Amino acid sequence: MLNTFVINKNDIGEELRFEPNYYYYSKILKEINIKKGIRFSQLGDIADKISDGEHSHIPRQKSKGVRYLYGRNIKEGSINFDPISDIPYISEENYNNFKRIHLKDNDILLTIVGTIGKSAIYKQKYDGKAGIPRHIAKITLDKKSEITAEFITAFFRTKVGKWQLHNITTGNIQPLLSIKNIKTLDIPKVTEQLMTDVTRLEKKQMELNSESISLIEEAKKVFLDNIKIEKNNNNKKYYSENISSFINNDLLTPAYLYPKYTAPVKKMSETFETINLGDIVDIKKGNETGSDNYIDYIKKKDGDIPFIRTSDIVNYEIDFFPDYYIPKEVNDELKQKLLPGDILYTNDGKIGLVAMLTEEDNVIIQSHIKRLRLNNNSKKLNITKEYLFLVLTTKEIARYQAKRFTVIQSTIPTISNRILNIKIPIIQKDSIKKITEIIKKAYDKKNERKKILKESLKLIENIFDKN
C-alpha cells in the first residue's frame, strides 16, 4: 500500500532535502507522538560531548595491543569481535598518541558511516581497552542527565528511533550521519519507573552477553587442554613439498599443505580417533531470496522473518536485529525449517563463522550459510551438538582446516562441500560431557538475553503505540 503525505513549500529548509523519509519523522511521526502527550529532549541537550573517532589512519596489527574497533563491530546492544576478518589491535603507543579514539565507561557507540544507527554501550570490563575510528560516534551523557545511556541505546532500536536516524542521514554514495545532526535526535521523556525498568533490563542483557562469551572461551580451554595442541609460533609464509604430495588430492593451493595448518590436525589424529564432519551431520544450504524481497526494520511487519547473512553472525549467535527481513510467505515457500540447536556455518566469503540457534530464533538463512544438524551416527560416537559447535569455533582445529580447503570461486572465497572433510576429534566421554554442559549454560544465557532484548524494546514501543 502506498503511503502519502503533503509537505508545504515553507517546510523545505536550507538543507533542500526532497526525500520523503526526511520529512516523515519531523513533520508526521513526531507530531503524532506529541499529540499523544509524548515529550522529547534533544540528545545534544543531555550529552556532555558527542564526537567521532580518529580520522587519520592508524596502523592495525594482529598481535596483542589495544582493541581498535571497526564500524561492523557495533551491533544492537553489544560489541562483536569478529575472529575471521578483524585485524583487531593498534599499538599502545598509537593509542596514547591519538586521544580522539579514547573511550569512557558508559559511552554510547553509534555507527555513522556506511551502516547507520547500530548502537551499543562501551564497558571496559566486558570489552577491554578499546578505541574507535571515524566510522563510530561516541556519546558521553551529562552526569546530571536523568536519561540513561541504556535507555537511549534501547530507544535507538525502536521504529521511532530508526525513523529519526534515517531522517537525518545524508550522503549519496555512502550514508553518513553527521555529529551536528546527531545532536538534534529526539529522545522521549518517560516515567522514572520506565527508565528504571529499561535500564535494568539493558544492564542485564550486557551482563548475559559477556557471561555467555566467557563460558564459550572456558569450553574452548577444556577442549584444547584435552587435545594438547602446542601453539605454533612458526609464521613462515613459505614451505616446499614434493609433487607426489599432491597426487591423491584435488587441491593445488599453497594453503592446502601449509605446515601451520596441517600440523595441529596431524598431531590430534595421532592421539584421538577422528571422523569427517560429513559423516555425523546432515547439511542443508540456505537460500537467496533476491534483494527485491529485502525489508528493512522500520518497514517490517510483525510476521516478517529475520534474514540472516554472514554479517549477521555475531558473538557465536545470530544477530537479534539483522539488517533485513523477508516476507512470511517467502519463508513458507522455502521451508528451511530451522530448529533450536541447529549449527550455522558460513561457507562463502567470510568462511568459518559459527553460531547455534536458540529457542528465540525464528529466521531464514542465505545461501552463504550452511545448516548443520547431527545425524544418528553422531549418537553412536557420543558427539553432541554443543561439542560439535565448540570444535568448529576453534582456530587450531576447525578454522585451520577450513583455510586448507578454501578456494577462490570467481572473486569470492568458498569452502563449498569440502566442509564435509573437516576432521572432528572424538575425545574422552567425560570431557565431551563437560564441554556440553558449559555450552548449554552459555546458550541458556544467550536465549535469556534475547528475551530481555525483546522485553526492553516492547516497553519503549508501548509508549508510542498507545492511542
What does it look like?
The chain has 2 domains: 32-187, DNA methylase specificity domains (Adenine-n6-DNA-methyltransferase TaqI, Chain A, domain 2), CATH 3.90.220; 214-433, Adenine-n6-DNA-methyltransferase TaqI, Chain A, domain 2 (Alpha-Beta Complex), CATH 3.90.220. 36% of the residues lie in helices and 17% in strands. It is built from 14 helices and 24 strands. Strands 2-10-7-8 form a 4-stranded antiparallel β-sheet. Strand 4 and strand 5 form a beta hairpin. The longest helix has 37 residues, at 429-465. The two termini are 23 Å apart. The relative contact order is 0.12. The mean pLDDT is 91.
Descriptive terms for the model:
single chain; 467 residues; alpha+beta; Adenine-n6-DNA-methyltransferase TaqI, Chain A, domain 2; 2 domains; four-stranded antiparallel sheet; 17% strand
* Low-confidence parts: none
| CATH homology group of the largest domain | DNA methylase specificity domains
**What form results from the Cα inertia axes?**
globular
Number of helices: 14
CATH topology of the largest domain: Adenine-n6-DNA-methyltransferase TaqI, Chain A, domain 2
Helical percent range? 25-40%
Give a quick precis of the structure.
The protein is of the alpha+beta class and 467 residues long.
Strands, helices and their partners?
Elements: H1 20-35, E1 40-42, H2 43-46, E2 47-52, E3 66-68, E4 74-75, E5 78-79, E6 89-90, H3 92-97, E7 108-111, E8 119-121, H4 124-127, E9 130-131, E10 136-141, H5 149-155, H6 159-167, H7 179-182, E11 186-188, H8 192-227, H9 259-271, E12 273-276, E13 281-285, E14 305-308, E15 313-314, E16 317-318, E17 324-326, H10 328-334, E18 343-346, E19 354-356, E20 364-365, E21 369-374, H11 376-380, H12 385-393, H13 395-405, E22 407-409, E23 412-414, E24 423-426, H14 429-465
Helix pairs in contact: 1-6, 5-8, 8-14, 9-13, 12-14
